[in-house]
Write a structure and sequence with these properties.
Layout: E1 5-12, E2 18-24, E3 27-32, E4 42-47, H1 51-68, H2 74-86, H3 96-107
Antiparallel strand pairs: 1-2, 2-3, 3-4
Helix pairs in contact: 2-3
Length: 109
C-alpha cells in the first residue's frame, strides 16, 4: 500500500533552496531541500492524533516553514526592529534581513 502524503505548499528561500509543507495521515512535515519528484534531504515532523492536535501541528509546521524560508510579515519585521533596539543593537547599520535574525529568539521562547 502506497503511503499517503500531500504537498500543501512549496517555497524557495533567497538562496533558491526549496522547502515543502507536507501532510500525511498523522503528521505535518517541513521538508528541507524538497523536490516533489524525490524524497527530501531532511524534515521536521509534527505528529497529531486528533483534530485538536492537528491544528497545533499545522500551526507549528507553518511557523517553522516561514522561518526556514525567511518569510515574515511587516508586523514581525517591526517587532524584530523594536526588539533589536531594546537589546542595544545598532540597527541603523543593519539590513532588514539582518534585523530579522533577532526575531528568531523571540519565536523560540
Amino acid at each position: 500500500m502506497k503511503e499517503f502524503h500531500r504537498e500543501i505548499l512549496k517555497v524557495k528561500d533567497k538562496e533558491g533552496r526549496c522547502f515543502g509543507l507536507i501532510e500525511t495521515k498523522n503528521q505535518y512535515i517541513v521538508a528541507c531541500y524538497y523536490q516533489p519528484s524525490r524524497r527530501w534531504g531532511h524534515g521536521i515532523y509534527y505528529s497529531f492524533l486528533n483534530e485538536r492536535e492537528k491544528i497545533f501541528a499545522l500551526e507549528k509546521a507553518s511557523h517553522i516553514l516561514r522561518r526556514k524560508a525567511d518569510i515574515y510579515t511587516e508586523d514581525e519585521r517591526e517587532e524584530a526592529l523594536h526588539n533589536a533596539k531594546c537589546g542595544g543593537v545598532p540597527v541603523e547599520s543593519l539590513s532588514k534581513e539582518q534585523i530579522m535574525y533577532y526575531v528568531h529568539d523571540y519565536w523560540n521562547e
